[in-house]
Amino acid sequence: MKRSLTIQLGLVAALLAPLLSGPPASAQTSERANIPFAFFVDKQEFPAGCYKLTVESDTQLSMVNCETGKPVMLMARTTKAYQVVQHGKLVFYVSGKKARLHQALFAGSNKDTVFALPPKLQREIATNMGVATVEIAMK
Question: Which end of the chain is less enclosed by CB atoms within 10 A, N or C?
Fold first, then answer.
């Protein structure tokens, strides 16, 4: 009888522990990057410089120019990657003289944020026609 009660109390404690421990700590989803070249996101062009990127939701990311403070909301698709990223980075595709932001990965997070690419660039990537990948570290 005593053993049965001990097992039941242990099960109740195990079930209630996650509820009583409070909300989980959220991973960092805001970082800065110094981008040494002008670049495009969707159809918007941005000058070289320091930018602070923040994931606002699964479909929006804000980007603030560090020098001017000018904010821009960007459409993106954020999914959960399999592993937590140790170092944040931005991934650009460069074709000709145009650099396009394709992906943002945030340190300490498993969020994988991807930006839409124009169909022509998608075809160039698929056929491996002179498209380079450039990665910029975020802090």
Answer: N
